[in-house]
């Protein structure tokens, strides 16, 4: 799952929508074929959860011109998956990345208030919780003096 999901991100950066869709489909098909075993209980960073897979799909689509609405839906799906995930499946940095993807799509759609809303929780995350990438993205896309308040439990220190 991880390899085709990562490939989708690469194809997204290169702007190849067809290959992005193909890689996302391959990742979904690979997930359907997984048969859990004893090693899955170990968890950790090498566990490729469904929320992470959805985040990678959104991260791939965000680069594709003309696909903004699909990318926004994918980012929202990833965010929802993280909000509903068990603690073992949560990743604050990946959820922050999905929120940054949603913000970037909204910027492309000229919805700056929506972009600020998408980043609201991210900006409340202390740096030690892994927000550096999304915040760098946000800082390069827009400047705002607005105060943000974390709403999701993943973002509380």
Description:
The protein is mainly alpha-helical. Helix content is 62%, strand content 0%. The protein has 7 helices and no strands. Helix 1 packs antiparallel against helix 2, helix 3 runs antiparallel to helix 4 and helix 4 packs antiparallel against helix 5. The longest helix has 17 residues. The chain starts with a helix and ends in a 16-residue tail after the last helix. The C terminus is likely disordered.
Task: Summarize the structure in short.
With 157 residues, this protein is mainly α. It is 62% helix and 0% strand.
Q: What is the strand and helix layout of this fold?
A:
Elements: H1 2-13, H2 17-33, H3 50-61, H4 68-84, H5 92-108, H6 112-123, H7 132-141
Mean pLDDT: 81
Number of DSSP-assigned strands: 0
Shape category: flat
Q: Indicate the low-confidence ranges by residue numbers.
A: 135-157
Strand content: under 5%
Count up the helices: 7
How can the largest sheet be summarized?
A: none
What level of helicity do the residues show? 55-70%
From the N-terminal CA to the C-terminal CA, the straight-line distance is: 31 Å
Going by helix content, strand content and strand pairing, the class is: mainly alpha
Using only C-alpha atoms, the radius of gyration works out to 15 Å
Order of helices and strands: HHHHHHH
Properties at a glance:
single chain; 157 residues; mainly alpha; 62% helix
